[in-house]
Amino acid sequence: MTLESTSPRLSPLPAPLVSARQLIDACAGGLAPAIIDCSFDLADTAAGRRAYAQAHLPGAAYAHLDHDLAGAKTGRNGRHPLPVRADWAATLGRLGVMPRRHVVVYDAQGGMYAARAWWMLLWAGHPAVSVLDGGLAAWKAEGGAIEAGEGRITDAAPYPLADSLVRSITADALLASLGRVTVMDARAGERFRGDVEPLDARAGHIPGARSRFFKDNLDANGRFLPAADLRAAFEAFGATPADVVHQCGSGVTACHNLLAMEIAGLSGAALYPGSWSEWSSDPSRPVAVG
């Protein structure tokens, strides 16, 4: 399998999850991290920013999925392609991210967008990043303060990129690797099976892919399941992390499964950023249904 960014991690990552109580205590103790609100709605792309303006964690900046966490679309590279790394570095600077400063990302959707930001920060070579478990709802439930308004955008220099701490794979490399890797699809079962396809060019899934709906990583309160439960769920697929490739519709919720594996202590799986939206845009690529 030909993977991009295979550099080993230089040091252990911080805990991939932080609880609301831990974050409240850190802020009260003068150790406030940079906080980024990633709330979004695929059906109403302005909803996340509106919600942020109404209520967000104190000092949080806002990252928009389409404008900040994705790059330019060509019609053949998926609905949320990764941005050029230099553009992402400039965005991180505007969001107040600096080397060695801990970053906490969150949303109001069970971490589905925050996980994308988490992965992209690691992609930039920034190891000190965690996701707020339970997001905005957990923060409110713990009595955390809320502020309103548009927030501030810093005029900082671009983030100094380092070697990626995560792995990714291209469509061509994945095609050549089918049968030798375990592809995990984070979409809902009806889309995986090809019963419906509301967004992309063709219905179905990548041949040989296995279904792992990202919402199965969460409990009834929208928080991640215990690490032992997540580990058992992913180990049931019978693949070592180094042989796993995660994908979804557009490379967003696949990061939720990557985060869940990290929580479970199963590091090293890869992301196919283009995911089904890229794969299905090329009629020469094989498709399976059922």
The total of helices stands at 10
Protein structure class? alpha/beta
The side-by-side strand order for the widest beta sheet comes to 1-5-4-2-3
- Return the average pLDDT rounded to an integer: 93
Question: For the CA atoms, what is the radius of gyration?
Answer: 18 Å
Q: What's the end-to-end separation, in Å?
A: 26 Å
Count of DSSP strands: 10
Can you write the helix and strand succession as a string?
EHEHEHEHEHEHEHEHEHEH
Report on the structure:
The chain is α/β, with parallel strands linked by helices and 290 residues long. The protein has ten helices and ten strands. It has helices at residues 20-28, 47-54, 85-94, 114-123, 135-141, 171-177, 189-193, 227-235, 254-263, 275-279, and strands at residues 17-18, 34-37, 61-62, 103-106, 129-132, 167-168, 182-185, 210-211, 244-247, 270-271. Strands 1-5-4-2-3 form a five-stranded parallel sheet. Strands 6-10-9-7-8 form a five-stranded parallel sheet, with helices on one face. Helix 2 (47-54) links the parallel strand 2 (34-37) and strand 3 (61-62). The longest helix is centred in the N-terminal third of the chain and has 10 residues, at 85-94. The radius of gyration is 18 Å and the shape is globular. The two termini are 26 Å apart. The relative contact order is 0.18.
